[in-house]
Design a protein that fits this description.
The structure holds two protein chains of two kinds. Chain A has 14 helices and 17 strands. Helix content of chain A is 39%, strand content 17%. In chain A, the strands form five sheets. In chain A, strands 4-10-9-8-7-5-6 form a seven-stranded mixed β-sheet, with helices on both faces. In chain A, strands 13-14-17-16 form a four-stranded antiparallel β-sheet, covered by helices on one side. In chain A, strands 1-2 form a two-stranded antiparallel ribbon. Chain A is of the alpha/beta class. By secondary structure, chain B is α+β, with helices and mostly antiparallel strands. In chain B, strands 3-2-1-4 form a four-stranded mixed β-sheet, covered by helices on one side. In chain B, α2 packs across α3 (66-79) and α4 packs antiparallel against α5 (123-138). Classes of the chains: A alpha/beta, B alpha+beta. The A-B interface holds A 20-21, 343-347, 350-351, 354, 361-363, 367, 370, 376-377, 401, 405-407 and B 1-2, 4-5, 8-9, 14, 17-18, 39-43, 63-67, 69, 119, 122, 125.
Chain lengths: 408, 151
């Protein structure tokens, strides 16, 4: 690990505190990442100097604010190698991005007998919006199974499942519970060959590895700002421009119309069509700053750093008595999920918290996956660029004490 | 090990977690209710055989953390032989213990749960089995869910 990694910790003010009398060890990054000082300061500077509503304003502050907002859109487009800024729709986060596609594209394109293909490792946010639109249109859901505790997609099933009825295949890039990195480019290519559109849930990959929509070959990509060093309440839907321009509005209101008459209106093209009402311009600006921050470090470097930590954690945790590790033993995203034979995940999390360690325990919004694995919950340690190998040693020592306490 | 933690995980609780009492389906039950904590996935079924207004037999099963399992186990030992009104009164006492940390004047095993009050996120774990039991007593058909209770 290069020494510069440790100095990155100084960029994150929140890390320098004690929790329950112990130095904070923040290992809940798959839920939300911490924010570097540059992002926090960008936000307060924005409100101190530039705040005004975007678009339509003719005064200096409004123009400045609009520039910040639209520059952020351009930055996000470059960040994922989109063709144009118009392919970036700002949303509240991954969940709203997926709901937007399900409600807008789904209502215009799905009919009885059509199939939406998902996988058994999807987060509830990539299941429930499809259930809602399936109920309204008569379309059916279908799932690619996983192989078991190894948590890989059973790709031997894909040709059987990718039939002509499949209109859209939505899948996660990196599983938030298993850590599995799915072969997204291959999956998109196979879907395209079968005539289906693709939506990639990039919530767990976007801040952790290079994500290039043209290399992936996806039609839609959804992610949240707060899982990539940005703040909560802002996220992105990427969509290929011709698809977005053909989709009906998601919500109606100001900012998305060309003309409004009493009984009908006409819409702007994307992205404005999908951004009714005052957008979250300040947080979008801060998200652009987060992109710059991550680019300054390099996402390929972040990927190998997080991957090394996850690998180290997987090996060290594997030596604990009565532990069941969930997810692939090989390449994995920056997280490890586990279940202890004698200690429930919530007791694990409470004990870790007393040692200053932030873990997550529960079903991780993956109830169907938990059911498949025969588990009610797991505990999860998830890593980011500021975590260190020493923090994994602290975690393992804490878990050993917990296991001893419960008589394991 | 912090003192809050040893207070939360008292020996009584650890013992009930390791060796739950009255665990399993009750074949003679004439009332059943299910408790569910959707935020963490904890589940608890409570089975009662009511004899008139009195709980003649009681058992539970389910899965969850040490606090929820020990609480349901201890609850079954406390509720056996009680009337519905007595059960309500015991729950009132238990609720006060887990929310305030104040131990009751009378000596009671329920006092083992006083440490829960320092961990507000865990109060729902401690009360899950009780909610299911009270619903079973009322003959409430819907599952008890922690999301519709104030605690």
């Amino acid at each position: 690990m290069p020494s510069s990694w440790n100095s990155l910790r100084d960029d994150f003010p929140i890390l320098h505190q004690q929790v329950n009398g112990k130095p904070l060890v923040y290992l809940d990054n798959a839920a939300t990442t911490q924010k570097p000082r540059v992002v926090i300061e960008a936000l307060s500077h924005f409100y101190e100097r530039d705040n005004a509503n975007v678009h339509r304003g003719l005064h200096a502050l409004s123009m400045r604010s609009t520039d910040h907002y639209e520059n952020a859109r351009s930055k996000l487009a470059r960040f994922i190698n989109a063709q144009a800024p118009e392919e970036i729709v700002f949303t509240r986060g991954t969940t709203e991005s997926i709901n937007l596609v399900a409600a807008s594209w789904g209502s215009a394109n799905l009919k009885a007998g059509d199939v939406i293909l998902l996988t058994e490792m999807e987060h509830h946010s990539n299941i429930v919006p499809w259930q809602l639109i399936a109920q309204r249109t008569g379309a059916k859901l279908r799932y690619i199974p996983i192989t078991g505790d190894d948590g890989l997609l059973d790709l031997s099933q894909i040709d059987r499942l990718l039939t002509p009825e499949v209109k859209l295949f939505a899948f996660t890039h990196v599983s938030n519970t298993l850590g599995t990195i799915n072969p997204a480019a291959e999956l998109c290519a196979r879907a395209r060959k079968a005539g289906a559109l693709t939506l990639v849930d990039a919530a767990q990959s976007i801040g952790h590895m290079p994500v290039d929509v043209r290399a992936l070959g996806c039609d839609f990509l959804a992610f949240s700002g707060h899982k990539m060093a940005g703040v909560a309440g802002i996220g992105v839907l990427y969509g290929r421009r011709e698809l977005l321009d053909a989709m009906p509005p998601y919500q109606g209101g100001g900012g998305m119309i060309n003309h409004v008459e009493l009984f009908e209106s006409s819409w702007k093209p994307s992205p404005e069509r999908f951004e009714a009402g005052t957008p979250n311009f300040a947080d979008a600006y801060a998200l652009g700053v987060a992109c710059d921050y991550l680019e300054g470090i390099g996402r390929a470097r972040i990927k190998s750093h997080d991957g090394e930590l996850a690998e180290r954690a997987y090996r060290a945790l594997g030596e604990l008595p009565g532990i069941r590790l969930i997810g692939p033993p090989g390449e994995r995203g920056g997280l490890v999920s586990f279940a202890l034979r004698d200690v429930h995940a919530h007791d694990v999390v409470t004990f870790a918290d007393q040692d200053g360690i932030a873990l997550r325990g529960g079903h991780h919004c993956n109830q169907p996956l938990m059911k498949k694995l025969g588990l009610a919950s797991t505990a999860r340690a998830s890593f980011y660029l500021y975590n260190t190998a020493e923090e994994i040693d602290v975690l393992v020592a804490s878990l050993r004490r917990t296991i001893r306490f419960f008589g394991g | 090990m912090s003192s809050e933690l040893t207070e939360l995980y008292q020996q009584v609780i650890l013992d009930h977690n390791r060796r739950p009492r009255n665990r399993g389906r009750l074949p003679t039950a004439n009332r059943v209710a299910h408790g569910d904590n959707p935020t963490c996935g904890d589940q608890c079924h409570v089975y009662l055989r009511l004899d008139g207004d009195r709980i003649a037999e009681i058992s539970f099963d389910g899965s969850g953390c040490a606090i929820s399992q020990a609480s349901a186990s201890l609850m079954t030992t406390q509720l056996k032989g009680k009337t519905a009104a007595e059960a309500q009164e015991l729950y009132r006492q238990f609720h006060e213990i887990v929310t305030t940390g104040k131990e009751p004047e009378e000596i009671s095993d329920l006092a083992a749960f006083a440490g829960v009050h320092a961990f507000p996120a865990r109060i729902k774990c401690a009360t899950l089995g009780w909610h299911a039991a009270l619903n079973a007593l009322k003959g409430e058909p819907a599952p008890a869910t922690t999301e519709t209770h104030s605690d």
